[in-house]
Amino acid sequence: MIQSSLDLFDPHPQRLARHTLLLPGFALPELEALLDALRPVLRAAPFRHMHTPGGLRMAVALTNCGALGWVSDENGYRYTPIDPVSAKPWPALPPLLVDLATRAAAQAGFDGFVADACLVNHYLPGTRLSLHQDRDEQDYGQPIVSISLGLPAIFLFGGLQRSERPRHIPLSHGDVLVWGGEDRLRFHGVLPIKPGVHPRMGERRINLTLRKAG
Ligand code: MD3
Ligand code: FE
After folding, report:
1. Per-residue pLDDT tens for 86-106?
2. Is 36 domain-assigned?
3. Number of domains in the chain
4. pTM of the model
5. Is residue 52 part of a domain?
6. What is this enzyme's EC (predicted)?
7. Does the residue 10 lie in any domain?
8. Which ligand is located closest to the Cα atom of residue 70?
């Protein structure tokens, strides 16, 4: 019947693990407003390639908005209130993003999540993000909300030990992922982005992660 085929376009949330929820297409209704909010952020704080403490140039280009921004250099990984490139505070976190993250987190059972930092990652075809944990935030009790835009990606969803073989999770334009609780410190990464052109976003993938860093 017609109703059931229409349901294919309104996919259900998928629980990937006990405290990890994939919300397919959750950002799509607000996509243009989200891009409008992102434009001045990227103008004030353009994407840049940071270096690992070991001196390696990261394949992913990144920037931040919010009270705190994640940086990596020869001195290590940390959150800072000042953008080292502009020597000014990071651009403000657009309220639309904070609100979207609060609503997504609530769907996953994390009530009252208020992000103070948004790390924005930029991937070209071929760019990958190797397996890592996010451990630079103050309170691991706070969830992280991720918004995927543009070219699709295969997300690597690992375990609490690096040695655990990660699951491969496809992420599409507009998908939102929430993880917290016992899943907060899982190893994760992104396989090399396949060549392609996204009709709205062009030849790139952008991922926003909303965090309570401080
Ligand atoms: C599930 N970003 O910025 S976001 C990062 O797509 C980062 O750019 C990736 O890892 C990206 O630190 C992945 C989705 C994600 C991130 C971490 C997780 C999902 C997660 C940790 C545990 C479980
Ligand atoms: Fe991460």
Report:
1. 999 999 999 999 999 999 999
2. yes
3. 1
4. 0.95
5. yes
6. 1.14.11.33
7. no
8. 1
| Domain limits for position 105 | 15-211
Ligand 1 pocket member 212 (CB < 6 A): no
Minimum mean pLDDT among 1-10, 42-51, 150-159: which range? 1-10
| 204 close to ligand 1 (CB < 6 Angstrom) | no
Pocket lining: 188 vs ligand 1, CB cutoff 6 Å: yes
Residue 8 within a domain: no
pLDDT tens-digit series, residues 171-198? 999 999 999 999 999 999 999 999 999 9
Q: What is the pLDDT of residue 7?
A: 64
Is residue 142 lining ligand 1, measured as CB closer than 6 Å? no
CATH number assigned to the domain comprising residue 152 = 2.60.120.590
* Nearest atom in ligand 1 to 148's CA: 6
